[in-house]
Amino acid sequence: MREMMAAVRLHAAGDLRLDRIPVPEPGLGEVLVKVWRSGICGTDLHIAKGNFPAPNLPLTLGHEFSGVIAATGEDTDPLAQGDNVVVDINIACGRCYFCRRGQKLFCPHVAQLGVHRAGGLAEYVVVPAGNVYVLPESLSLDDAAYVEPLACAIHGQDRIGIRSGDRVLIIGGGPMGLAHIALAKLGGAATVIVSEPDASRRELAGAMGADVLVNPFETPLEEALAELTEGIGPDVVIEAVGSIPTYEAAVAVVRRGGRVLAYGAAPQTATMSLRPFDIYSKELTIVGSYAGTYDTWPRAIDLLAEGRFTPSIIVDSIRPLAEAVEAIRGLETDKSTVKVHIQMP
Question: What is the pLDDT of residues 224-270, one digit of tens each?
């Protein structure tokens, strides 16, 4: 009889369970990873509620994880049992129009671990060898579980192109907003302003390097920015909440000739009010950012390995696998926790 393991699996919208299932076996070009830590993301909640497409049920969730190679299939050199690793979750065909242009996120056949196929909220996961990154000795498995979200934030920073001396407004002090603070400072931003109503998250934003903290419930954002930017507005606005009011605010407050990064994941069916004349007359640049891949992964690894980014400031809750289902459901109502990591047994 095959060895059994615990896994957090979605059976239907709203039906999330901690199951006992067989440990998977790696095939040709695959490795078996014994998961060490797996981060919980807002996307996991969207998937669990049925608001984010997850076509292959039952599905093991989890797309932010680190671990150790437990076994290898054929044709996986130079990977070896015992390697500490992280895994790029985006698996594409490598042959289509988009893949051949270095845009595998748009591949019509792209499959993501934890979204379309089994992910890392389990004791073990099978992954393609070509998506595996072996970690340097200086990077712990604890910190490595933050590689995936950091790679996503790096991609967003690349898309928006923060320049030295820019004034940057980040709307939202959640896990990804906090990551954007650190990256914006590393990229040369002169001033990073964070709009966040929660006091504990504003405190974390300060710890990550934010220069100015604004509570939009106390001072209207446009009023605060008028004073902070001499009535001009920020050069760059990063929307890291995913709500319609904050998206509309981002376009309203950015300066003429400024840039807006659509980073927060709004519901697929949500719509916003946007006047084309505002984009035209202000000559705005509005770009989206969906996920990280390719060079954003090794860059995230290097930032963490060199101590230029500190996940422990953001990760404020470490819970056992037995509490993962509760932790995912709690994202909807408990705003006191910023980032949960699940520690595997």
Answer: 999 999 999 999 999 999 999 999 999 999 999 999 999 998 888 88
Residue closest to 339 by CA, chosen among 182, 176, 123: 176
Instruction: Return the axis-axis angle of helices 147-160 and 296-305, rounded to nearest 10°.
Output: 120
Query: What distance in Å separates the CA atoms of residue 130 and residue 125, rounded to the nearest whole number?
Result: 15
Residue 4 corresponds to which tokens in the numbers above? 């059994």
Element of type H or E holding 250: helix 244-253
Kindly report the average pLDDT of the chain as a whole number. 95
Residues pairing with 30 in the sheet: 128
Q: Is the pTM of this model over 0.85?
A: yes
Annotated catalytic residue: which of 11, 43, 296, 333?
A: 43
Contact in structure between 338 and 318 (CB atoms under 8 Å): no
Catalytic pick among 11, 46, 191, 285: 46
Respond yes or no: is residue 155 known to be catalytic. no
pLDDT tens profile 74-84: 999 999 999 99
11 is catalytic: no
